[in-house]
Design goal:
Elements lengths: L1 H14 L4 E7 L2 E3 L9 E9 L5 E10 L12 E12 L10 H8 L15 H22 L9 H18 L11 E3 L5 E6 L14 H20 L4 E5 L2 E3 L8 E12 L19 H4 L7 E12 L6 E13 L4 E3 L3 H21 L23
Parallel strand pairs: 6-13
Antiparallel strand pairs: 1-5, 1-9, 2-5, 2-8, 3-4, 4-5, 7-10, 8-12, 9-12, 10-11, 11-12
Length: about 375
């Protein structure tokens, strides 16, 4: 909630009070270094990408508070993230369902143009270029989603391999039994229903503050990962998430959390070459490599219902990644669950690239926290 609130303060410092600014999306929240001791922390941020349209990207960081007059050291940066804010006409507040993706195409006709950000130093130019890269990446992801493109050949083979594995588990003529550490996806779901109270509204109207939605979905995702693994999960990252529709005060918010993917996965690409339906296949071929740690991706779907009219709208999808010290795997069974698994697998590959240091932040590649280091949890 504090990060979203800070984004709003920074946005208004850039635009002034003459417009209404709302949170459109949250880019990946990533742990850079875990908090290893109790200390004061400093939240800071700035507008890093704004070209004169209605949107702006605000980059934030959470770091150990430095000594007075000193600058924050790289090793003291605990977490980084970015918010996309959009400015609207305060009189009309023009936006509709899925308005953020409409913005990617042509939001200028419905919103208010703001001043572009002026970049002068080399660091500012780097941040601006990174913001432009993020903007283009979001447009590219929107075009490659499973609603617009079918699974590729490798993903199709993985789905078929898991389906064959599932048949073995139910075949009385095959000795293979479902391992205890394999859990069906439909049994991982947990739900939350709550009325939206006015103390969580934003500053403009009776719409719920976006930071509250992030807090609520994170707590449910944490509970889902914990109940799935029976261990205490460690937060690794939040994937880019979009607020699709506003949530009015007095409405009912429905949340559903599901374990969408586990890494190492149930079936690896290398398993595809083996005939896993054969009775003579080795156990090594029939199961992916066991691991002491498992990364769990939890998908939280949210929707809001108008009490008076019974109208229900989606409000966003949030994908959290946690690490647990346990070898546990999730297995989809229906076609819808397989599509959730494929979508989560694509996200997991991007998370892995970030953790392994394949993403650049300051011109150099840096590894992120993988969740295995000791940290303060209470």
């Amino acid at each position: 909630m504090d990060l979203d609130a800070l984004s709003g303060v920074i946005a208004y410092k850039h635009t002034g009070e003459s417009v209404t600014t709302v949170t459109a999306a949250v880019d990946r929240i990533t742990i850079q270094h875990p908090l290893s001791e109790i200390c004061d922390i400093e939240l800071s941020g700035q507008v890093t990408f704004a070209t004169g349209r209605s949107s702006m990207e605000i980059s934030l960081q959470v770091a150990k508070a430095p000594e007075k007059g000193a600058r924050v050291k790289k090793e003291d940066v605990l977490m980084t993230c970015a918010f996309t804010m959009v400015s609207l006409d305060p009189a009309t507040k023009k936006y509709g369902a899925h308005w953020y993706w409409q913005f990617l195409a042509d939001i200028e006709s419905r919103s208010v143009k703001i001043s572009p950000v002026l970049v002068e130093t080399a660091e500012e130019k780097r941040l601006f270029a990174q913001g432009e890269t993020n903007y283009n990446a979001k447009k590219a992801l929107a075009k490659t989603g499973l609603r617009k493109q079918t699974p590729n050949d490798e993903e199709t083979d993985l789905i078929h391999a898991m389906w064959l594995r599932q048949l073995e588990y139910h075949d009385p003529n095959v000795a293979t039994q479902k391992p205890e550490n394999v859990v069906y996806m439909d049994s991982t779901k947990i739900h939350s229903t709550q009325i939206m109270q006015p103390q969580y509204r934003n500053r403009h109207n009776f719409m719920i503050f976006g930071g509250f939605l992030l807090k609520t979905t994170f707590e449910l995702a944490f509970c889902c990962a914990a109940s799935f693994s029976h261990t205490r999960p460690t937060f690794v990252s939040l994937d880019p998430s979009t607020f699709e529709n506003p949530v009015p005060v007095g409405s009912v918010l429905y949340l559903t959390a599901t374990v969408a993917y586990t890494d190492p996965p149930m079936v690896n690409v290398g398993d595809i070459s083996h005939d896993i339906s054969s009775e003579h296949a080795s156990e090594q071929q029939k199961s992916s490599v066991s691991s002491k740690y498992t990364r769990i991706q939890v998908r939280v779907d949210s929707k809001v219902r108008n009490i008076e009219h019974g109208e229900t709208k989606p409000t966003g999808q949030f994908n959290y990644t946690f690490l647990v010290e346990k070898d546990i795997k999730v297995m989809p069974r229906t076609y819808s669950e397989f599509m959730i698994w494929v979508d989560a697998r694509r996200r997991a590959e991007r998370v892995s690239a970030s953790i392994q240091g394949l993403e650049e932040t300051d011109g150099e590649a840096h590894a992120r926290d993988d969740g295995k280091k000791a940290r303060v949890t209470e």
